[in-house]
Amino acid sequence: MQAVKKICVVGAGVMGHQIALCAAMAGYEAFCMDKDTAMLDKARKLVEDYLAGRVKKGRMEEEFAGQALARITFTSSLEEGAREADLVIESITEDLELKRQLFAELDRLTPPHAILVTNTSNFVSSKIASATSRPDKVCNLHFFNPPLVVKVVEVVKGPHVSEHTINQVMEISKSMDKIPILIKKEIEGFVVNRIMDAMMDEAAHLYDLGVASYEDIDLAIRHALGQPLGPFRLMDIIGIDLLYRARMNRYRETGNPAYKPSPAVVEKFVRGEWGRKTGKGFYEYQPGNNNGQP
Ligand SMILES: NC(=O)c1ccc[n+]([C@@H]2O[C@H](COP(=O)([O-])OP(=O)(O)OC[C@H]3O[C@@H](n4cnc5c(N)ncnc54)[C@H](O)[C@@H]3O)[C@@H](O)[C@H]2O)c1
After folding, report:
1. Which domain range does residue 202 map to?
2. Which of 42, 74, 76, 93 has most ligand 1 atoms within 8 Å of CB, for mutation?
3. 254 and 219 in one domain?
4. Scanning 58, 65, 73, 223, which has its CA 20 to 30 A from the CA of 96?
């Protein structure tokens, strides 16, 4: 098995900069690449602030923080990030065509042994792998937000992916202090989001039927099932616009009416009440109150 030394994360947004930091903290030579230099500046500041905060709270040795920071290179050059990379983690904007273009370029720029993974929440990797000449080395490695906190990652084995690639990605994930879950077949939404979607769907259905208020359903799920957030609060935080669009896309793709968003979600979407980002969803939000609780 090729020793993995250099990991390049492409896309330095909400997810990417934290994934790069996970890699650097695990001892890898990490590259955090973004085409937008303003995003790179922001990412570097977020990484520095995170490490300084951990040190200040006594949760991390100053020396460890300094070494982790020194192991990350922030770059706007894909060539620099991809050159000699053993693993590339793509975490760019959720757009299939953009991702396919990027993977074709990565295929050209990275060494032949390099594994290319995608952090997409929505696309199975066979839709992306065919843009490369190495589909056996392309798979999904799905992190959860925030990647520095959530330990679980999903590793999805499409029909084109080799056992060797899957084993390596599972091992690298463990070395990054993650708990990799192997998804043995390609399926949209993978496992965690499908189960979360099912819970949100049922909650919305019960609310639509007038069985209980959304506040009571959230209370029940939090206290009876030990979830940190109820499904309606979760919808507000994820963004009702995102949920609506994801559902409509899946409905259009499959023609299956079961994927249609629920009337409660449609109503919120049409009113522009998209959750925390618009100040109102099922709940109301004041500026600066983002702790997700009433
Ligand atoms: N946000 C979440 O909660 C979450 C959770 C799990 C997975 N994801 C997935 O992670 C990916 C990134 O999501 P995000 O929320 O971090 O997005 P984001 O919009 O915060 O960041 C995306 C970044 O990609 C950069 N970018 C776009 N095209 C690029 C290119 N060709 N080369 C280099 N950089 C490019 C953009 O400049 C931007 O900084 C998506 O595929 C998304 O589905 C997101």
Report:
1. 192-278
2. 93
3. yes
4. 73
